[in-house]
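Researcher: Go.
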Amino acid sequence: MTRSIGGPGRAVRVAPNRKRADEWAVVLAAADIPHWIRRRLDGWALIVRAPDAAAALESLDAYDRENAGEGTDRGDAAAPARPVTLVGVYVALLLMGLFAITGAREQHSVWFERGSADATRMVAGEWWRAVTALTLHADVPHLLGNALAGALLVTAVCQQLGPGVGLWLLLVAGAGGNALTAAVHRVGHVSVGASTVVFGAIGILAALRIVTPRRVGSRSAKWWVAVAASLVLLALLGTGPNADLLAHVFGLLAGGAVGLLGALTVRWMPPASVQWLLVAAAAAAVYAAWRLAF
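Model: Structure:
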């Protein structure tokens, strides 16, 4: 029913589900307007050639007016429904399992010697520490705090982007935050923990809220809400007496950067098979970093 013409075009509407997009496609087909449907992060986009955009919008608006009495609306204001994911819970359980192996920092295990985010050694070339440090925790309270926050926030990111894309953006944000922290300190600074990923998740969610808002047209009016909420969370969660404030700030900024980049460049949702391949690749990257550490 959809006339697939490919090439560049303009999205005239974004539907929360394929059924609504197909409904609009029927309207354009009846009006003999070439069009195609593309899956994006913000829903199912109905796209036409730029010269046909005005005619397409007119036809769709006329269709809405004709069906207004039946309670039909445009339906492009709601966020698309996505399958529930528990990736954040699995990540939290994995962190707990690793803690059972590595122990606490006060035990001075070889894991902390080889994997901590030691700024001196990272600047000297041991870049893998930016990744390995994310899986180490100083003590049980440190672990539980990050596991709980990660279960919630990692799940939220993966719910929006899919498990594979979400985990990769989180890994890049966490490692990037650690790398930036090491670059600033250069010497005499050692840190561990997944809190950089946690704040990276906050940055990613804020970026997604800005670029792909839940309601069409709210971007200009409410983008600052996401930024303000991120700063409030940073103040509440990331500035305690033993907190590595700089790492948290850089994690938040790195998350915001990769979130914006991902939202602006990844305009389609990879299928489940690709998502799980990306999950496996993310796990392999962490494993490879530890292999380099030892």
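Model: Residues 141 and 147 are 10 Å apart (CA to CA).
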